[in-house]
Amino acid sequence: MHSKKRKPGFYIEVGCPGCGGELEVEENFFVTTCSHCGSVLRLVMPDCPTAYLAPKTLAKREIRFNLDRYLKKRSLPLTDADLQIKAVYYPFWKIDSLLLKVRNRVHRRVILAETEYQSEVTTETEKTDIAVVPYSLTLRAGPALDGVPDSLGVRGDVVKLVPFSEEHVASGFDSLPVVRSWDKVRSNLGRSLATVDEIEQAAFGDNLTEMFNPVFSLVFFPFYIVESYREGYRRFVVDGASARILQLQAAEGSVAGSDGDHVDSADELLTPSMVFENAASVMSVEMTEEPEEEAGGPRVEFGRLDIEFHRCTTCGVDLPDEKSYLYVCKNCQEIKTVERTPLPVNQIYRIAARGKNPDSMFPFWALKMPNPVAAKLQRMLGGIHRSERIVVPAFRTRNFEALYRLARRISAAYPQLELTPVEAFDRNFTPVSVSMSEAFALAEIVIYRRQVAMVAEGISGMPARESVIPVQADLFYAPFHPESYFFVDSVLGNITFEKNVLA
Fold first, then answer.
1. How many whole angstroms separate alpha carbon 304 and alpha carbon 163?
2. Which residues are CB-contacts of 344 (< 8 A; sequence separation ≥ 6)?
3. Closest Cα to residue 214, out of 232, 187, 196, 234?
4. Where are the alpha helices (DSSP H) in 257-313?
């Protein structure tokens, strides 16, 4: 919804197609209501990567003042009146994904002496830590431009984006072409991730770092390239959004960064690097060098997001104002999805509750696997009842480990559940906030996470990563009721998850 409150992370400013009013929305929002005209709206993402633009906040007339303040603070000669300024929007790839990290560590424990005749005892235990965490980074997408960083890094001060379009490009700015395709960036990421395991040395065995479900988008960021000829030639690179001085290069080749420290050459300051930010840690990884693509070569195509009215495509009635990937129209009773699903959804099912407690209906994707994969699943997931499906929650959770545990439990119990078609929805039905495509990716991580755990337990050797391609996908709702700090399923009474993991 429309709000003047500054949001954390990236957010997008768009216009309402009904009244033209300004909206500020999260990048991953589905549905919102315009605070000006009350229209129910939906964000429509293109099939190819979406492009955004970060508006400039530093005006051209303010550049000289900022430069002189920067130079005076460092006792350097000030600029002359005749500065040569080039304004550009430079493209960066923004990549959001999940990272599976396997770290083999030795945990040391010191047991203190109980009496003066006993010495301290130190025990060492080998332990394999497995974690799946959010993973975000930005990488250069345009042609080589001296002084422009290879990554935007972690920016908490500049977060607002607008959809990329010619009308949003500020007057006097040139937008540089995208010359590094996302396919090439993806292949380089695989090589770069391998270096993480070398940086974080394993105490035993081998560490493992795998990336899942990367989502690519483009961010065009404003920069000023400034040249001054007072006291010899000097070149500056200025961040057009935060007004920070990124590079000062003098005629003799010395370079200073935004912190004022001088180095001998631009190569030392601008070492190609990537910043990986996730819930567990921040890692710097050296980027694999590759020949620069020609700026005059084929340009990378990118898509443009759109805002449209959130209505049933059959009868035109407004769909529910809630964040969901799947809806049932109250007027014509047809199933409507807001994504192009890999497999059709012809029917929604539910499990009848047997308990007396008030139930909340939580959605799950049941993905039927082809026979060879199904046989592997049965061995991995265990349980008395053998299942040919892997079941993953269709609602958001705060951490992957909670999702992993719930997916294993309900996948093993799935053959015991009796499904019937949903006849009507009420307020107890939780929205479907995980799309079918995301469910495929989550299923792949769940399977791989279990295989890695089996390796750590000595049950099997290192697995080969395989894509999850189900032959059928069904959506069903299961009843859960609250008990203390948990939700407990109302049919079997043994499938639980913590209340605080709901996103």
1. 7
2. none
3. 187
4. 266-269
Alpha-carbon distance 236 to 238, whole Å? 6
Q: Does residue 20 lie in a domain region?
A: no
171, exposed or middle or buried, with CB in 10 Å at 0-12, 13-18, 19+?
Answer: exposed
Shared domain check, 333 and 237: no
Task: Dig out the tokens for 257 from the structure.
Answer: 């960064």
| Whether residue 237 sits in one domain with residue 355 | no
Supply the DSSP symbol for 430.
P
Do 204 and 331 fall within a single domain?
no
28 in a structural domain: no
Domain ends where: 234, 267, 286? 286
In-domain check, residue 302: no
Shared domain check, 437 and 359 = yes
Measured between alpha carbons, how far is 172 from 56 in angstroms, rounded to an integer?
12
Q: Which two tokens stand for residue 39?
A: 């229209």
* Residue 303 falls inside a structural domain: no
Point out the domain boundary residue: 234, 268, 286.
286
Amino acid at 165: S
Question: Do 496 and 389 belong to one domain?
Answer: yes
Q: Which residues contact 115 (CB under 8 A, 6 or more apart)?
A: none
Residue 143, domain extent: 60-286
Q: Does residue 481 contact residue 490 with C-beta atoms inside 8 Å? A: yes
**Residue 363, H or E segment:** strand 360-368
Give the Cα separation of 333 and 312 in Å (integer).
Answer: 10
For residue 246, what are the CA distances in angstroms to 18, 240, 261? 42, 10, 12
Task: Report strand pairing: 11-15 vs 22-26.
Answer: antiparallel
Please tell me whether residues 86 and 232 are part of one structural domain.
yes
Domain count, the chain: 2
User: Does residue 75 share a domain with residue 166?
Assistant: yes
In this structure, are 242 and 352 located in the same domain?
A: no
Q: Which amino acid is residue 30, in one-letter code?
A: F
Give, for all 503 residues of the chain, the pLDDT tens digit: 334 444 445 667 778 888 887 777 765 556 777 878 888 888 777 777 888 888 888 888 888 888 889 888 988 888 887 788 999 999 999 888 888 888 888 877 777 666 666 667 777 777 888 888 888 888 888 888 888 888 887 554 456 788 887 877 888 899 898 888 888 888 777 777 776 666 777 777 778 888 888 888 888 999 999 987 766 788 889 988 888 888 777 655 455 554 444 333 332 222 222 222 222 322 233 333 444 454 444 556 676 777 888 888 888 888 887 778 888 888 888 888 877 888 988 889 999 766 555 688 999 999 998 877 777 777 777 665 677 889 999 999 988 999 999 998 999 888 888 899 987 788 889 999 899 999 999 999 998 888 888 887 777 766 677 777 899 999 999 999 999 899 999 888 888 999 998 87
- CB–CB of 204/104 below 8 Å? yes
